[in-house]
Design a protein that fits this description.
The strands form 3 sheets. The protein has a 6-stranded mixed sheet, with no helix packed on it. The protein has a two-stranded parallel ribbon with strand order 3-5. A two-stranded parallel sheet has the order 7-9. It is built from 4 helices and 10 strands; from the N terminus they run H-H-E-H-E-E-E-E-H-E-E-E-E-E. The protein is globular. The chain is α/β, with parallel strands linked by helices.
């Protein structure tokens, strides 16, 4: 009798521990997988042998598995009952070749979105809709093949501090309301196809 109760008690404890493990929402995994697929992930240039993105494990957690180019919310590693969310994508010179999927716009907790020195194309639809990622503080797509224009809705990125788009194929003119982005510290748009005047801006330092 005592043995049965011991098994039941220890079994319930074991189940409780299992369910307390950190998890990451499925839509976050799906967004990363869409990015991997749309930019020829099988041919990315990895730094070292560990942390490669691998979607074969259904229970994968990129935050706990320390995938390259990613950072997550602090609670993910501090609190064992907390959900994990991607807060940073930084894939500098990884040989990304392709387009940016709209699925990335589901990563609403992103603070840093940085993919310089790649071969990325992006439609104006993505650039326009990127303003829904209102937690972004850094956007860096320098040295790619991005085209389109900067939307007047960029003002909605009210946390933005660094906007770096040098060496692309961006066109049109700089929206005047970008001067109202008072947290902006750095704006780099050189070597594009833009025209017009530069608004009078005061950068926060």
């Amino acid at each position: 009798m005592w043995l049965i109760w011991y098994i039941l008690i220890t079994g319930s404890i074991f189940l409780h521990i299992c369910h307390a493990d950190n998890s990451i929402p499925t839509y976050q995994i799906n967004s990363l997988q869409a990015l991997y697929a749309s930019t020829d992930g099988d041919n990315w240039n990895w730094n070292g042998l560990s942390g490669h993105w691998n979607f074969t494990n259904l229970n994968v957690n990129p935050c706990l598995d320390e995938w390259q180019g990613l950072n997550c919310n602090n609670n993910c590693t501090i609190n064992p009952t907390s959900n994990c969310y991607i807060t940073e994508i930084n894939l500098n010179t990884y040989n990304l070749d392709g387009t940016l999927p709209l699925d990335l716009l589901n990563l609403t907790e992103l603070i840093i979105l940085s993919m310089p020195n790649n071969k990325i194309h992006a439609s104006s639809i993505f650039l326009d809709d990127m303003v829904t990622l209102t937690n972004l503080e850094t956007i860096n797509f320098s040295d790619n093949f991005l085209s389109g224009s900067i939307s007047t809705n960029i003002i909605n990125l009210y946390n933005l501090k660094y906007y770096i788009m040098t060496n692309n194929h961006m066109g049109s003119s700089l929206p005047s309301n970008i001067a109202e982005m008072y947290l902006l510290q750095e704006l780099q748009l050189g070597n594009n196809h833009m025209s017009g005047t530069i608004p009078n801006m005061t950068f926060n330092t």
